[in-house]
Amino acid sequence: MKARKPNSPASNPPLAYKDEKFLDSDEARPIRIMAEYLEPLRIFCREQVHETIVFFGSARITPDGPLGRYYEDARELARMITTWSKGLRSNCHRYVVCSGGGPGIMEAANRGASEAGGRTIGLNIGLPHEQRPNPYITRGLSFEFHYFFMRKLWFAHLARALVVFPGGFGTLDEMMELLTLQQTQKLDRAITVLLYGSQYWKEIINFEALVRHGTISREDLELFSFADDPAAALGLLQKGLQAHPEEEPPAFAHSGTPKCHPD
Fold first, then answer.
1. Is the pTM of this model over 0.85?
2. For residues 98 and 52, is the Cβ–Cβ distance under 8 A?
3. What is the dihedral angle through the alpha carbons of 20, 21, 26, 31, rounded to the nearest 10 degrees?
């Protein structure tokens, strides 16, 4: 009988953490979820980004479209925020403009911050229509997510303020999640929330009806303010941030996550 040759090294199976088939499997889903938490955490710590001002709004708004003024207002507000924040004395990057990373209002926010010479973050997500990161995100601060809930966590995790421009289902979803976290006190710090474009927001959401029907409290209306021009919005943001100063990196939902420190 012919002797069987021993297996060659080339036939050995790959290490589990290098096995793409395994990493894409259902069994490895917890690993993929953790990766979408730990990788941004590593980069934000390395880059000393502790506080963000998040812009939400429609990806469909263009400068020359029917809601084009909101694109220009988001661009101008992000520029003003970045110019102001760069003048603050700090050991880390304060109030970095963060968006969902795509086109429309997201692009406008990243663009305005970039034009002011500041860093700006994009938390992009893969969608059927192939949303791609806009070109104004700072190199090294563009992130790609598969899981919506992990992307939302990073919107909330570092946010000190939120500016919500006109948008559709995605904008409403993100806005309501942050308002719910505020309402239920699941965040360790206050987030200043501005709804930009009072006419739009009061038309599509009848906040007074929610109070009248008893599904929210009158006090819940104090969780947000309206703004209609960049200068007024900046003033409201500055007032809110000064009312709740923070020297340490924020925690999320009583998180035990270690604070970031420079190497």
1. yes
2. yes
3. -20
